[in-house]
Amino acid sequence: MTLRIALVGATGAVGRLVLQQLDERNFPLQSLKLLASSRSAGSVIPFRGEDHCVEELIPESFDDVDLVIASTPDEIARSFIPEAVRRGAVVVDESGAWRMDPQVPLVVPEVNAHAMEHHHGIIASPNCSTTQMVVAMKPIHDAARIRRVIVSTYQSTSGAGLAGQQDLDLGSRAALDNQAYDYAAFSHPIAFNLIPQIGSAGESAYTSEELKMVHETHKIFEDDSIRICPTCVRVPVTNCHSESILVETDRKISTDEAREVFQACAGVEVIDDLTAGQYPMPLDCSGRDPVYVGRIREDLSSENGLAFWCVSDNLRKGAATNAIQIAELFASREKVAGR
Amino acid sequence: MTLRIALVGATGAVGRLVLQQLDERNFPLQSLKLLASSRSAGSVIPFRGEDHCVEELIPESFDDVDLVIASTPDEIARSFIPEAVRRGAVVVDESGAWRMDPQVPLVVPEVNAHAMEHHHGIIASPNCSTTQMVVAMKPIHDAARIRRVIVSTYQSTSGAGLAGQQDLDLGSRAALDNQAYDYAAFSHPIAFNLIPQIGSAGESAYTSEELKMVHETHKIFEDDSIRICPTCVRVPVTNCHSESILVETDRKISTDEAREVFQACAGVEVIDDLTAGQYPMPLDCSGRDPVYVGRIREDLSSENGLAFWCVSDNLRKGAATNAIQIAELFASREKVAGR
User: Fold this and answer.
1) Is A119 a catalytic residue?
2) Which residues of B carry out catalysis?
3) How far is CA A124 from CA A71, A223, B53, in A?
C-alpha cells in the first residue's frame, strides 16, 4: 500500500535528506505534505519534478496523513506530536523528545526492528552518535555478548544542523584570513579546534550527548547491564561522525571473527587494511548510508576486548536514512496488516 | 655553570621553539651553535639580538660542545648522535631513534627525572602523545596506581612538522574553494577530515604511533604491567594534541581527589567546569607549556575508572619544552658535580 506522508522540518539539513531519500528509495507515497514553522512556510521545494509548497504546521495538518517523519528541535517535537497522534497519524520522530518514553519504541532497524510492534503512535529514531554505534555493536553483541563499551567520538559540525556547517565553513575562512567570526551554533570556535562538550551539562559531569549514548543504547538492546563510558567531542569536520570504540565481551572474539561478523551484518561495511592505508574516513563516507568499520584489532589492555574505528554519515544513517528505514518497515507491516 | 650548546634541526618547527625557549627561560648558555643539513646550512637565525648562521652538521661540529639538543627525523638521529657522544657531547634527542635503547633514559622531568642519572651520553625525550599522557597519569598513578589506560587521541597537524601545518592551511583553503590540493605530509586529505593512522602499520594492527604510547609509557613508569590500548587519530587542528583518557586504578579515586592531585602536580593545569563550558581546547592551550586536564569524571563503565580530557601543545611540552627541561636538569646537575 501507499502512504500519505507529512514531513515536518522539511527545510532543515536532515529534512532535505529525508526528501531526497523518499525519492531515491522509491518510497510508496500516496501524497506528500511538507510542513514547517511559520518562518519557513511558503518556501517551495521541488520533489519528483513537482514544486511542493511548504505549509505552516497547524493541528489540522495531520487530519489526512498516515505517517509523519519529523526532524525538529526537541521542544517542537514535544508539542506537536501528541496532536498528530490524536488525529490518527503515526510519527517517526528524529528528535530527542520522546526517545526515552517507555511507550515509545526507539528503533534502529538493523538492531531492534521487532520493537516497532509495540508503538502507540510514536516511533523514535536515536541520536546520531548512538545509531552508528549500536549498528556496529550488534554483530559483536550477537556473537560474544558485549559487557562494556568505552567510546570517544569525533563528531562533525553537520550534527549541529545547517548553522553548524555554516559555522565551520565561515569560521575556517575567517581563521585562515586572521579575521574574527561570530559563531552561531557553537559556544566556542570550532575551526581548527576541538570542543569536548556536545549538549548540556548533565549528571555525573557527563554531557547530555554522552548520557544519550548510554541510555539509548540500553533501551535499544533492552539491557541496562551493558556498561558504557562515552566522551563526545565536536571536531572541525563537515559531515560524518567517527567513533573510537572499545568493547569488552563475555568471551574473547578474535579480529578474524569480528571482521567476519561485521561483514555479514546488514548496514555495516568493513574498510580495514592498515598496511595499505585503508580505513573509514569522514570525507569518504559522507553521502553514503552504511556504518563503516575499520582499524579492527585486539584490545592490548584486556583479555576479551576488541577495538575498532567506526564512521558514518550522521545526517544519513544517523538521522534521515534511519527514519526512512523505520518508515519503510512501517509501510511493509501496514501492507501485511492489510490496512 | 654555563654550557656550550649545539642545536641540531634549528630550522624545523620544534627547533625554532627550542631556540625561543632557550631565550625565554634564560638558559645558562656559554655558546650556541646552530646545526642543520647542508640544505638548510647558510640560513641566518636571530637569537638574543645577534644573527646566528646555521652551519652544516659534520662530525667536528661537536668537538667544542657540552650539550646537543636534537630535533631531527629518526634516521638522522641514528647516524649523527653516536659521533656526537664519541666527541664528548651529551645529546638530548627528541627523535624516536634512541628512546627504547636500554642504555638511554627516556625522560619527562615531572615524571622520572631520576632516570637521567644513568645516561651514557644520550637522553631521549618521548613522543609528543606519550609525554602529555604520562604527565597527566603521574599524579593519579602516585595516588592510586594505574593498572590500565584506554586512550583515543586527537592529534594536530603540527605533529607532522611545518609541512603538516602547511598542508592543513593550504588544504583547507583549497577545500573551501572546491579546488584540488596535493598533500605533502599526509597520505590522505586532512582538511575537514580525520585520518585514523599516525605512523606506519606495526604489530597486532596497531600503528607505530600507538605502539610508542604503549612502550614509552612502560619505560617511563618502569612498569610493563600497565595495560594500554591507544587509538591515534590525526585531526584538522593546527596545534596541540588532545587525548580522551580512561584510567583504571588499584583503588577507586574520586573526582574530587583526582582534581586535587592534578592541581597539586607540577606541569598540570586543571580547567574543569562543564556547566560553565570550561575545559581545555587546542586553540586556548597553544603556545603554553602545561598539560591541561578537564572533563574529570567517574568512569560509568567500571568501579575504579576515571575519565578525563587532556590537551597540551605538542610542539612545546610535547617536544621543545620537555627537551629544554631535560637540558636544564642536566645543567643543574653538572653544576652540583662541580664540572
Assistant:
1) no
2) 128, 241
3) 11, 18, 68
